[in-house]
Model the fold of this input.
Amino acid sequence: MSRKLISVRVLKQVVKDLGDVFTTKDVSEDPRVMNAHRKLANHSHYHAFVGGALSDHRRELGIDELQKNTPRGSRWGKKGSQSGIFQANQQPRLKQVDPDQGRKAVEHFQEPKVEKLVSLVCPSCGGNLKKDPATRHYVCSHCRNEYIANHGR
Done:
């Protein structure tokens, strides 16, 4: 028994339906993954098998590992997602000014736009917290606990 038995087709379906940031257990506990791997689901290393399969097929799945060893396994992010996985070490791009504008031609540095990826984690189970637009509270996608943000007040 190993991670090579995990179906990439099923992983693709589940990853596609998850949010931009998710954990290994969000995938391994999905009923579609569990049903497709009934013989493995009761194995003591089942979650590790799924995590290994996510790692092995990360390119094909369009994901990157953001953090290891959370309470719910590795934290993964979709490449090119709106939450943004940005490289902090981007080099500044040079922008040339048109010398015909009557000014001396100079080169200006354009600082790269670096956005911060913020992931809210449930303190109870380590699941992802998502904002509920109706209540403006944060709800855990796994255990469904609700949290109210004080926004620094």
Remarks:
- The chain has six helices and eight strands.
- The two ends are 52 Å apart (CA to CA).
- Confidence is low (pLDDT under 50) at residues 82-95, 102-109.
